[in-house]
Task: inverse folding
């Protein structure tokens, strides 16, 4: 995973034609970052903000040149906005976005970790811990790169901005939202931004025999619907026909059992075209002729857990609440269903389809205030060319593939600042390790960090 720091340096260098690779040793720095439990809980009252302050102190201590030479502003109490002035003030700045908060470890699963999730243990060729992949690795990679370049006396041609947000995992309303508002308040618009998302993947089924570097041009839209229903209550010894729990269970089961139809939309169409150039046999032929075989391709991708989410809006029942006592039939029940929508699908369209699937007018559906998704970023834009050049400098044999991020990020908060958002993590990982993001035994390879 040598790509982690080298790519971060090259991304910065490409913006100003700076050719040098500057060595850095971030292993222990990332380990120390992991040991600080900057956990974002959904219930914000549970958050220990002392850990976030400790993390700030760690950054200032570890990267003294960065915090001495760059303009540093604390936003939303715990997020950071850094500015590195460029030589040409007429050029629009570029923003590098990452976050240092992490998701909690599910209670009761702590014992399933090979090493405690916040111990930052280095063992068996890996650095273990929550945040090793999402997203402290990006924070540390970026700061290592800036520190090294500053010490070398480098100044970028255009101004570079760096956002280190503190609440991405719970929506970014205090972090990225306020950072974006602050940038807008300063009268700045961005040439483009690079956020979290795609990565370098070893052993990808999409590019057999080749390392795949995926640069995401879009992300799926995050929408949670709340389903509520009322029924007849009473004593459990006298069951009722109009049972709220049963009616709601039927509704969520219908959503679970009737996934949305797979389809090919941009940027997945661009991804398939690019993969087709690196594929042989029947698969390559189909992909190079997706105008004829799009239905077959979408159907095949929907059968694979790795690619399924790229070709359909997904449905996940995540919460179900009802009842106060085992012998009391509840009069109301509530469930939450999380959807990740393909680019171009609006929350309004989703609600219409959900109502049709449930086919029960007594189920109340609350869509909240979820907004529409971001546009698909231009593959021909300068940002894509810079990221691609950086990857090729470090990994000349990699297959660079445009793609779709099936999760959601803070990118939506910057929609007023730029339409050009390129999502690329400056690290590589194996297919086997990709499932560890947000999961048990999150880890990153030490070999690549050295």
Result:
């Amino acid at each position: 995973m040598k790509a982690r720091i080298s790519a971060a340096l090259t991304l910065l260098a490409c913006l100003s034609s700076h050719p040098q690779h500057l060595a850095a040793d971030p292993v222990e720095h990332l380990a120390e970052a992991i040991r600080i439990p900057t956990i974002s809980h959904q219930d914000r009252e549970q958050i220990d903000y002392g850990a976030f302050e400790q993390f700030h102190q760690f950054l200032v201590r570890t990267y003294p040149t960065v915090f001495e030479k760059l303009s540093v502003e604390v936003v939303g109490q715990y997020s950071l906005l850094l500015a590195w002035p460029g030589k040409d003030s007429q050029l629009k700045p570029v923003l590098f976005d990452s976050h240092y908060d992490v998701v909690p470890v599910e209670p009761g699963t702590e014992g399933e970790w090979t090493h405690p999730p916040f111990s930052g243990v280095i063992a068996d060729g890996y650095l273990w811990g929550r945040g090793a992949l999402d997203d402290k690795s990006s924070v540390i990679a970026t700061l290592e790169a800036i520190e090294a370049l500053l010490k070398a006396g480098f100044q970028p041609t255009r101004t570079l901005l760096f956002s280190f947000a503190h609440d991405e995992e719970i929506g970014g309303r205090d972090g990225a939202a306020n950072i974006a508002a602050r940038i807008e308040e300063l009268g700045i618009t961005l040439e483009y931004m690079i956020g979290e998302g795609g990565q370098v993947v070893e052993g990808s089924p999409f590019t057999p025999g080749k390392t795949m570097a995926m640069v995401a041009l879009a992300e799926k839209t995050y929408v949670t619907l709340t389903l509520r229903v009322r029924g007849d209550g009473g004593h459990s010894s006298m069951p009722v026909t109009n049972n709220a729990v049963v009616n709601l269970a039927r509704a969520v089961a219908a959503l679970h059992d009737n996934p949305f139809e797979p389809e090919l939309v941009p940027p997945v169409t661009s991804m398939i075209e690019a993969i087709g150039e690196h594929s042989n046999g029947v698969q390559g032929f189909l992909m190079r002729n997706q105008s004829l075989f799009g239905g077959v391709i979408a159907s095949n991708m929907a059968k694979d857990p790795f690619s399924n989410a790229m070709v359909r809006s997904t449905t996940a029942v995540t919460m179900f609440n009802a009842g106060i006592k085992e012998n009391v039939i509840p009069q109301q029940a509530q469930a939450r269903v999380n959807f990740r929508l393909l680019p171009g699908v609006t929350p309004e369209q989703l609600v219409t389809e959900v109502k049709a699937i449930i086919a029960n007018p007594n189920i109340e559906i609350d869509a909240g205030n979820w907004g529409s998704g971001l546009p698909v970023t231009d593959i021909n834009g300068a940002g894509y060319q810079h990221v691609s050049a950086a990857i090729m400098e470090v990994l000349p044999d990699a297959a660079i593939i445009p793609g779709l991020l099936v999760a959601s990020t803070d990118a939506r908060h910057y929609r007023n600042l730029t339409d050009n958002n390129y999502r690329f993590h400056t690290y590589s990982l194996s297919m086997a390790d990709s499932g560890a993001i947000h999961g048990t035994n999150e880890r990153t390879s030490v070999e690549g960090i050295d």
